[in-house]
């Protein structure tokens, strides 16, 4: 007589063990995700403290009495953390024959920054952003004011080089088309000895008592207009921190809900 086989229903204990085996990997993954969300939120809180400290330090630099611009011996030490937006002064003679125009968008509209190397009394050079000119004033003869000659003293904010170009727009030294203030590239394009040129540039500030202009007709002058540096830092870290912590809290609430629901089903 052939043997007959019958499928026996799985017992309740076996079903519970199988469900537990499936549940724990899911819970472990959720726990890892929860910890990751907490870590991201905490990191943003730390970034928030760092950003507020940076803003305070930069604000102090901008309004401090001007210090001497870093000399050649100090050039290797110049960095963004300790020197960006430092108010400095330097004395020398402009080399107007090496002037460069860098595309800019300012409170006065679209146009160009006028960057000119300044040779200091020590024989070194530093690029000076003398200010903004509109397209109609690209030609120095149409700026309504003769460029400064002889020894001049420049006060402004130290800025770090901007290599490469702007977003989706590369500098084109061959065509003398510039989208960023790339000190090294500008120096090379003008045939200046790189070892004698500072690795930073200076945004010249407005003349005493003038204050930065915020609007002017494009045919007004004289040009260039200095003092248009915009100091702005994105400060969204608190929003990001609350977002990560909110997601962590929502995940925790979902875990508690699912856990209690399973226990209610099991008890039923």
Distance between termini? 44 Å
Quote the beta fraction.
15-25%
Rg, Å, rounded:
31 Å
The SSE string, one letter per element, is: HEHEEEEEEEHEH
Extended strand count: 9
The overall average pLDDT, rounded, is 83
Helix content: 25-40%
Number of helices: 4
Q: Which class of secondary structure composition applies to the elements?
A: alpha+beta
> Strand sequence of the main sheet, in spatial order?
2-4-5-9-6
Report the major sheet: 5 strands, mixed, barrel
Low-confidence stretches: 1-10
**Spatial shape:** elongated
Please characterize this protein's 3D structure.
35% of the residues lie in helices and 22% in strands. The chain contains four helices and nine strands, in the order αβαβββββββαβα. The protein has a five-stranded mixed barrel. A two-stranded antiparallel ribbon has the order 7-8. β1, α2 (80-83) and β2 form a beta-alpha-beta unit. The model is unreliable at 1-10 (pLDDT under 50). It is an alpha+beta fold. The radius of gyration is 31 Å and the shape is elongated.
């Amino acid at each position: 007589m052939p043997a007959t086989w019958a499928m026996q229903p799985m017992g309740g204990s076996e079903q519970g063990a199988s469900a537990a085996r499936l549940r724990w990997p899911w819970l472990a993954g959720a726990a890892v995700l929860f910890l990751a969300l907490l870590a991201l939120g905490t990191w943003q809180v730390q970034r928030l403290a760092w950003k507020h400290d940076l803003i305070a330090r930069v604000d102090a630099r901008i309004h401090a009495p001007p210090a001497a611009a870093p000399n050649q011996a100090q050039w290797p030490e110049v960095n963004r953390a300790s020197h960006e937006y430092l108010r400095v002064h330097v004395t020398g003679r402009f080399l107007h024959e090496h002037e460069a125009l860098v595309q800019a968008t300012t409170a006065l509209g679209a146009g160009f920054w006028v960057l000119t190397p300044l040779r200091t009394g020590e024989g070194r050079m530093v690029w000076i952003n003398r200010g903004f000119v509109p397209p109609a004033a690209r030609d120095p003869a149409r700026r309504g004011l003769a460029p400064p000659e002889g020894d001049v003293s420049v006060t402004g904010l130290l800025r770090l080089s901007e290599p490469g170009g702007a977003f989706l727009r590369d500098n084109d030294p061959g065509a003398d088309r510039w989208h960023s203030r790339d000190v090294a590239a500008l120096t090379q394009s003008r045939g200046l000895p790189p070892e004698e040129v500072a690795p930073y540039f200076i945004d010249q500030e407005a003349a005493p008592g003038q204050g930065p202009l915020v609007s002017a007709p494009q045919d007004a002058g004289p040009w260039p207009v200095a003092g248009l540096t915009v100091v702005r830092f994105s400060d969204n870290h608190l929003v990001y921190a609350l977002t990560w912590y909110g997601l962590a809290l929502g995940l925790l609430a979902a875990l508690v809900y699912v856990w209690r629901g399973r226990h209610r089903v099991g008890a039923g």
